Amino acid sequence: MKRIALMILTIIFISSSILTAHEKVVTFGAENTPPYAFNDKKTAKGLLPDLVKAAYKDSGFWVRIRILPPKRSSILSEKGKIDGVMGVAKDVSLFEGEVFSDSICKINIHPIVLKETKVIYNSIEDLQQYTLAVVRGVGFEDAFPTLKLDTVTDVGQNITKLFAKRFTIMIEDPVIIDYIVNNSKIYNRYKGRYDVLSPTLIELDLAIGFSSKNPKYQEKLESFNNGLSMIKQNGTYDAIMKRWGIKKTP
After folding, report:
1. What is the pTM of this model?
2. Percent of the chain whose predicted confidence (pLDDT) is above 70
3. pLDDT digits (tens, 9 = 90+) for 150-175
4. What is the pLDDT of residues 56-114, one digit of tens each?
5. Selecting from 3.30.470.20, 3.30.450.40, 3.40.190.10, 3.40.50.300, what CATH number does the domain 106-203 have?
């Protein structure tokens, strides 16, 4: 009888532990934007996964990250199927019930063209005569209502289409393009064959867009913000930024 009782208690303890662990999971979607976030052997890696995991390290939350098209992440967040989307612009709401975390980092968006392309660019007005290629679902449609945009689901598609001369200008963060071209066998042949136009078209303040449809979103949001503040103070944040070759912006 003692053995049976011990087995029952063990099963109850294991079941309780599983439930507790499940309750402490936080799941985010993230766009495939290396070096910020990408899949490596089915594991999400990059600057954002490293920063987010470091921020949650002492919170008791286990972080799960899914690399998804931006639109798909927004739909799942709006339905409360995942906890939110990593690396979204704070001034552009992508889904109903989105609540932004504190700022993670800033990125600069530029027009990008082939080297042989002659484009005069000094301001956004100079781009109005072109159809611009952008990734769908990240908020460019709202950010640039006066521009004609052609959308795709992934930045890799835009790189391919740019060099196939399907369009003249791509709108993107040059850090992403440089990383993909320099680190991918598929795109390495494009190295040195494109120009990044200045000035910056727009600066984006990246954060996590939490879904308020999740009843525990406030706890998860507060845990992240507290952890982010801590790693910025103890040097972890700077070390991760340096590891991924990202310059910290004020």
Report:
1. 0.85
2. 90
3. 999 899 999 999 999 999 999 999 99
4. 999 999 999 999 999 999 999 999 999 999 999 998 888 999 999 999 999 999 999 99
5. 3.40.190.10
E strand intervals along the chain: 25-30, 38-40, 43-45, 62-67, 84-89, 98-100, 105-114, 131-135, 148-152, 169-172, 194-196, 202-211
List phi, psi (to 5°) of 248. Answer: -75, 130
Alpha carbon 156 to its chain centroid, in Å, reads: 15
- As a whole number of angstroms, the distance between CA 229 and CA 225 comes to 6
Per-domain boundaries in the chain: 2-105+206-243, 106-203
CATH 3.40.190.10 fits 2-105+206-243, yes or no: yes
Q: What is the DSSP string of 203-218?
A: EEEEEEEEETTSTTHH
DSSP 31-67: --BTTTBEEETTEEESHHHHHHHHHHTTTTPEEEEEE
> Amino acid identity, residue 158?
N
Q: Give the burial class of 227: count Cβ atoms within 10 A of its Cβ; 0-12 exposed, 13-18 middle, 19 or more buried.
A: buried
Judge whether 2-105+206-243 and 106-203 match in fold. yes
Q: Alpha-carbon distance 199 to 87, whole Å?
A: 23
> Quick check: 35 and 175 in contact, CB under 8 A?
yes
Q: How many CB atoms lie within 10 A of CB 239?
A: 12
Place of tokens 């007005």: 125
